[in-house]
Design goal:
heterodimer, A: about 240 residues, alpha+beta, 5-stranded mixed sheet, 4-stranded antiparallel sheet, 4 helices, globular, B: alpha+beta, OB fold (Dihydrolipoamide Acetyltransferase, E2P), 5-stranded mixed beta barrel
Amino acid sequence: MVIKMVEKSKYTKRMDGRKFDEIRPIEAKIGVIPSADGSAMFKTGDTVAIAAVFGPRVLHPQHMQNPEKGILRVNYGMMPFSVSDRIRPGPSRRSQEISKVTEWALAPIVELEAFPNTVVDVFIQIPQADAGTRVAGINAAVMALAHAGVPMKEMASAISIGKLDKTLVVDINKDEEDFREGEGSTDIPICILSRSKKISLLQLDGKISVKEMKKVFKMAKEACTKIHKVQVKALKEVGR
Amino acid sequence: MDKRKIVVPGETIISGEEFLPGDGTRREEQDIVAERYGLADVSDKLVRVIALSGVYVPRRGNTIIGEVIDITFNGWIIDFGGSVNGFLPISEVPKYIAKGELQEFLDFGDIIVAKVQGTDGRSLDLSTKLRGLGKLREGMIIKINPNKVPRVIGKEGSMVKIIKDATNVEITVGQNGWIWVKGSKIDDELKTKKIIEFICENSFIEGLTDKVAEFVKELK
């Protein structure tokens, strides 16, 4: 698929008709997995993430236990049918990296001092992927953690900002991720905490100037505020 | 505040110097901020968040139901679905037991009712010395969300009484969300299970006691 977005003046919309700062339609739901202590589904466009939280529970093996506070353990995985080429099930280099990065993004918000020697397990699965799976996973995981009643300082929302040639766009999809013209595409996933507005995840796989980066933060903040509203709404609807 | 509302972590419940942060909240300058997901409750000047979900946090004096998962040289390790395992020492059972004969008194997989003696966050001491505690024989265990236990018990045990009257079973509710039910017929036990599930599903409805009484009538 050919996308032309070289000159800003010429193109005012993206190939799926969105504006540059428009996020895909979001859907969020809580309690999708009844057997888990907490669970959530988060959907942006064609990307779907489900998260299940178990614990705090006794951690095995014992040598991993921390007598000062509970630990957080995240497991991210894409389902074999989530993309058109089958993904080999089981841990891969990519899924292990994303698990770890998600763990670090969530670590500043969970408070497990009251649960020494325990673990909170977060399982993230991607049944359908259209780019931005790690941020969708984080959004689902935050909701699932809250739903599980884990003590948390605040919530968090994540969004991926893309740079297509020289244009900055919010929430890129797979077609945009594969954009090859000019400077090509750059994907910048960002996770912003809801109250303190601190950044707990920032990745970048390309080139970007400092000036553009400042704009990226501004766009991410706006998008995360929107996502946060949807997350809160889903959490408040349940049980009424 | 007249009505309790659901809050999410990081949300400002109320602002003002005069309010005190209670369970599940913290102070951040003027604001009282929620630290967990639940119902915000402002009574007098104390602000707290009532949990809707989450693991059972044991408190001294709670009655809990658990399963023997291990036997050590001086006691039993009890799993009750919490974040730590409980320990029932040999000295806290109402009978003299010689070392090495622990298995004859309580074996792996046995279900017991016990009282929480004390907890320091990383271990939990149990006792079965009082009346009504000890090993449970026959019957069945129903596991529910520990945060719904107050609903199942009702005001001063009113809900338990409704269940008992309706199904004619013996019932013990553990604070950890495990409920032991024993009836003369298995049908009675299954009926009890249905009622308890109904209570858990409808725990938000106002006038729950009347709703349950209606549901019990329908079951007959």
